[in-house]
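Supplementary Methods, section 5.1.

A reviewer requested that the exact input to the structure prediction be made available. We therefore reproduce it here, unchanged from the version used in the analyses.
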Amino acid sequence: MKNCTNDNDTLQNRTALFQLIVYIPVLSLGIPLNTMAFWVFCCKLKKWTETRVYMINLMVADSFLLFALPFLIYFTKYDHPIDKLCSTILNIYFTNMPMSILIITLIAIDRYIAIKFPLKAKVLRSPLKSASICGFLWITVIMYSYLRPKSEEKEEKFCLRKQSIQPNYSLLFSIIFWYFIPLGIVIFCSVQIIKCLKKNMATTSHETKLIQKAIHIVSVNMCVFIVQNSSLIPVLADYA
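The structure derived from this sequence is encoded token-by-token as follows.
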């Protein structure tokens, strides 16, 4: 029993160290970049487009995640009781983490439709439809966050410090549903977009450079999605 406790403490310490290594750069870069993005998409751009709607919603979700990160690191490192602060931070995390992932997934799907089916895109895509989809997702994810099964949390003494050996199946399901399924969709859409762009590679050097730039952006976005959101998995996995 003592060995299990020591192993659990070692795992907690390793998780906390990993979070410090990952989240300190995320915080230091995320705050100024998110502020700059807010200024560009909310103040500089005048025309409402599907991308602008998605990006503003993404920035809101990311801002709340950045706010929650220091608390998550503290809860993992130290024994903080399960109180109102703990519940509030967990609700913020379980609302905005899946929302951020879903919006990035929507952006990938939107680009895929626009490039793969340009004629249908005129009917399927519009800023109003994008805003309606985001609104529906916000309501759904908030309801999930506040109504998710919390019986396992009542058995624990400290916030985000799992003591029992019983697996938290609801959180394991969340990892699969909120991360791996969107990951598959993002990879599929990104690969299809890149293939489509390469097929339409123009003969002129200027158009070729533009297409290559678009391919680079899609590739980088896919890699950022994988790296950024996989770094959030330890919080869930450690608690599951």
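The chain has a mean pLDDT of 77. These observations are discussed further in the main text.
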